[in-house]
Amino acid sequence: MPLIIDKREVAVDSSRLRSAYTVPMRTASLNIALVNNMPDSALEDTERQFADLLGAAAGNIPVRVRLYSLPGIARSDRVQEHLSDAYFGIEDLISSRFDAVILTGTEPRRADLREEPYWSALVKVFDWAESNTASAVLSCLAAHASVLYTDGINRQALGDKRFGVFEERKVSDHALLGSGGGTMRFAHSRWNEVQEDALTSAGYVVLTKSLEAGVNLFVKKKKESLFVYFQGHPEYSPQTLLKEYRRDVGRFLRLERATYPSMPREYFDRASTKLLTEFQENALARPRKELMAEFPEDIVARSVENPWHSPAVRIYRNWLKYVASKRDDVSTFGSMARVDRPKSSGPWRAPTDRF
Fold it and tell me: Of these residues, 82, 188, 233, 309, which one is catalytic?
């Protein structure tokens, strides 16, 4: 079933995305707000990523998405024009009720998130979501901002960027995860983290974590809404980590950062790693911005894979079923708002699918 994006002007056709002018929301569809705060270089890619992920997860559930972005994020003239054409204002969101909302992060500029120019608008959305949605998904920096705002949990700076594909295991039974295998892999790209002890002490329930990357997926019920948090990026397309790596390499060559970036973990194959290592050695020997013309992006892009796609689709499909059940008030789905605490001892067992 096609996913429809509500836009102020015209949308772009794709296999899962239908062209749509502004039309009244239909009660038959799940109405989801996407608050896309990604920086200019990733804004439109993020639109497509969530359209693809929601389209793959929806199955026979009709989904309609309306686009928003927080004020206070620096934008180029071109991107501001796109926002004016395609996105709705935050006041439109705050004056409406949606079945669910998805909030992305953005690139942090301040050590204290409360000093970011968009902070007041962001926390207004958090407060609104608690009473006006069945569920809210918060990604990366948006997740960090939410737990800081409601529970005073500060993110912790990492020594290096947590960047790459990391294997995670289930640590709690929850219907979001379904009855699939006990391990999965997800993409991560962040300089900060919120830690498990702080989360569990404040009533959050951790669902997946990695020995190397720490917590990824965790949840907490807030008033009427189930808040679902990702420190990683299940929505990423296969080439997103490569694009971010290329961006960071370019910043080094333009002297915008002091150190050469680390390659994303467990992402490139052996041949690609060899090519990129040779490029790095050349860049470190003679750093200059002109060298970016030789970056082997096209060759490397042919080999990258997306092992996080299947678990991401499964989690989002279960999430959409939950949101649909709340809209339709189907009591058999009510158990999802309850989370089971991790067992203190004994072997891990796959959960029974509550759907």
Answer: 233
Query: Could you read off the pLDDT of 92-151 as tens digits, one per residue?
Result: 999 999 999 999 999 888 889 999 999 999 999 999 999 999 999 999 999 999 999 999
**pTM over the 0.90 mark:** no
Q: Residue 3 phi/psi, 5° resolution? A: -95, 135
Q: Where in the chain is the domain with CATH 3.40.50.880?
A: 3-236+306-337
Residue 290: active-site member: no
256 is a catalytic site residue: no
CATH of 3-236+306-337, one of 3.30.390.30, 3.30.9.10, 3.40.50.880, 3.20.20.370: 3.40.50.880
Catalytic residue among 140, 144, 188, 309: 140
Q: Are 187 and 164 in contact (CB under 8 A)?
A: yes
Catalytic residue, chosen from 116, 168, 235, 244, is 235
Go through 274-287 and write b for each residue having 16 or more CB atoms within 10 A of its CB, e for each that does not: ebbeebeeebeeee
HSE-CB of 298 using CA atoms within 13 angstroms: 3
* Residue 193 annotated as catalytic: no
Which residues lie across from 157 on neighbouring strands? 192
